[in-house]
């Protein structure tokens, strides 16, 4: 008489597949590449509705710059181009922002360095080269 074999559970099969994948990946030789400088990362946002525009807020250190909060004081943004430049290894990142508001065809330019954060709402990301 032969002993009956117990069927493998899906968890056991999944564990075996994961362990096999790990074994294959660890056996591959991977070499790191040096980063090339200067590095440029670009984002372009456009308003979902070009007539009403979107909201764009930039925080620089303790200052806040906003577009679209109050249409009389701060017109809404039609498009925003953000470019981060890292000139060399260990250097501070430079940020260049061009904001075109709904009432103008000429953008406002900001040249910033250091810790720059921004929030976008009512806009969509149209293009980027970010990894």
- Give the CA-CA distance, first to last residue: 61 Å
Shape: extended
Taken as a percent bin, the fraction of beta residues is: 35-45%
Specify the helix fraction band. 10-25%
Q: What is the typical, i.e. mean, pLDDT? A: 82
Low-confidence stretches: none
Order of helices and strands: HEEEEEEEE
Number of helices: 1
As laid out across the biggest beta sheet, the strand order is 6-5-4-1-8
* Quaternary structure type: single chain
Q: What structural class do helix, strand and pairing data support?
A: mainly beta
User: How many strand segments?
Assistant: 8
The value of Rg in angstroms is 25 Å
What can be said about the biggest beta sheet?
5 strands, antiparallel
Please give a quick description of this structure:
This protein is mainly beta and 131 residues long.
Structure, described:
The chain is mostly beta strands. It has a domain of 90 residues. It is 14% helix and 43% strand. The protein is built from one helix and eight strands. The chain has a five-stranded antiparallel β-sheet, with no helix packed on it. Strands 3-2-7 form a three-stranded antiparallel β-sheet, with no helix packed on it. Strand 2 and strand 3 form a beta hairpin. The N and C termini lie far apart (61 Å). The mean pLDDT is 82.
Essential attributes:
five-stranded antiparallel β-sheet, extended, 14% helix, mainly beta, 131 residues, three-stranded antiparallel β-sheet
């Amino acid at each position: 008489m032969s002993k009956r074999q117990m069927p493998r559970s899906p968890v056991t099969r999944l564990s075996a597949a994961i362990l096999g994948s790990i074994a294959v990946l660890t056996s591959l030789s991977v070499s790191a590449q040096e980063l090339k400088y200067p590095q440029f990362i670009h984002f372009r946002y456009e308003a979902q509705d070009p007539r009403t525009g979107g909201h764009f807020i930039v925080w620089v250190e303790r200052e806040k710059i906003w577009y679209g909060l109050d249409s009389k004081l701060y017109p809404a943004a039609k498009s925003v181009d953000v470019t981060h430049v890292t000139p060399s290894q260990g250097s501070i990142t430079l940020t260049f922002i061009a904001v075109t508001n709904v009432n103008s065809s000429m953008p406002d330019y900001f040249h910033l360095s250091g810790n720059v954060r921004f929030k976008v709402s009512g806009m969509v990301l149209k293009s980027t080269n970010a990894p």
